[in-house]
């Protein structure tokens, strides 16, 4: 992973991005067009596991734009750099304060439970690098509010695992429908079959599918 100074915080970029783009361009002509269409930017991480998971919870079942708006209001409640947001700071907020940012009662509950797991040391983050994707997912889904989709977002945006393919993601399925099937409905089985050509870089292909839907890159 390569650290890059950007704005007021350090952004971390995956080392495999150029190799992945070359592989995808060779295997898939439509993906080659997408990669050429969006030459700027790539997957980014802020290096903060708690922030990535909290943002993923905020983003559940709402648009990227709406999620960013809620997150911006939420972090304003804590007087510190949002990229260094600490679980203890979240636990110091009242439920009413968190609701005022636009979070639903359930998402407030989930984010507080996540913060408690981090604060109590129940999440074994020091061991994640040695664990495979499914093992990390199994550990994360034990936290309230974290399902497979949220765990996969974490694998993509924090762990930089290169071959994650989040078939539960509405944006991914919508993008595949628009880019590959002229807007016709696409089943999970059809999406999975299409994605076989993108292995071992399905994470990167997913990012470009998302990019085709939104003028701003997805970030957590």
What fraction of residues sit in β-strands?
under 5%
The global form is: globular
CATH class of the largest domain: Mainly Alpha
When the domains are counted, the total is 2
Helix-strand topology string: EEHHHHHHHHHHHH
Which SSEs are present, and which pair or pack?
Elements lengths: L1 E5 L2 E5 L3 H11 L1 H9 L11 H10 L5 H12 L11 H5 L3 H6 L4 H15 L13 H8 L7 H10 L12 H11 L7 H8 L6 H12 L7
Antiparallel strand pairs: 1-2
Tell me what you see in this structure.
GO terms for molecular function: alkylated DNA binding; DNA-3-methyladenine glycosylase activity; DNA-7-methylguanine glycosylase activity. The chain is mainly alpha-helical and 220 residues long. The protein has two domains: 10-41 and 164-213, Endonuclease Iii, domain 2, CATH 1.10.1670; 45-158, Endonuclease III, domain 1 (Orthogonal Bundle). It has twelve helices and two strands, in the order ββαααααααααααα. It has helices at residues 17-27, 29-37, 49-58, 64-75, 87-91, 95-100, 105-119, 133-140, 148-157, 170-180, 188-195, 202-213, and strands spanning 2-6, 9-13. A two-stranded antiparallel ribbon has the order 1-2. β1 (2-6) and β2 form a beta hairpin. α1 (17-27) crosses α2 and α3 crosses α9. The radius of gyration is 17 Å and the shape is globular. 33% of the residues are buried.
């Amino acid at each position: 992973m390569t650290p890059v100074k950007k704005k007021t915080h350090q952004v971390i970029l995956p080392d495999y991005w150029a190799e992945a783009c070359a592989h995808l361009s060779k295997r898939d002509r439509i993906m080659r067009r997408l990669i050429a269409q969006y030459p700027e930017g790539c997957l980014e991480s802020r290096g903060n596991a708690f922030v990535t998971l909290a943002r993923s919870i905020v983003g559940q079942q709402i648009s990227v734009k709406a999620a960013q708006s809620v997150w911006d209001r939420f972090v304003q409640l804590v007087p510190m750099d949002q990229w260094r947001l600490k679980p203890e700071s979240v636990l110091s907020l009242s439920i009413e304060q968190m609701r005022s940012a636009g979070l639903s009662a359930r998402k407030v509950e989930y984010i507080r439970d996540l913060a408690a797991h981090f604060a109590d040391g129940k999440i074994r983050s020091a061991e994640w690098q040695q664990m495979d994707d499914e093992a990390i997912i199994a550990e994360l889904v034990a936290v309230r509010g974290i399902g497979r989709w949220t765990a996969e977002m974490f694998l993509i945006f924090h762990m930089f695992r290169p071959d994650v393919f989040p078939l539960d993601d509405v944006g991914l399925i919508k993008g595949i429908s628009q880019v590959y099937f002229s807007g016709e409905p696409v089943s999970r089985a059809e999406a999975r079959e299409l994605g076989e050509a993108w292995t071992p870089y399905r994470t990167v292909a997913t990012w470009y599918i998302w990019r085709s839907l939104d003028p701003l890159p997805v970030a957590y």
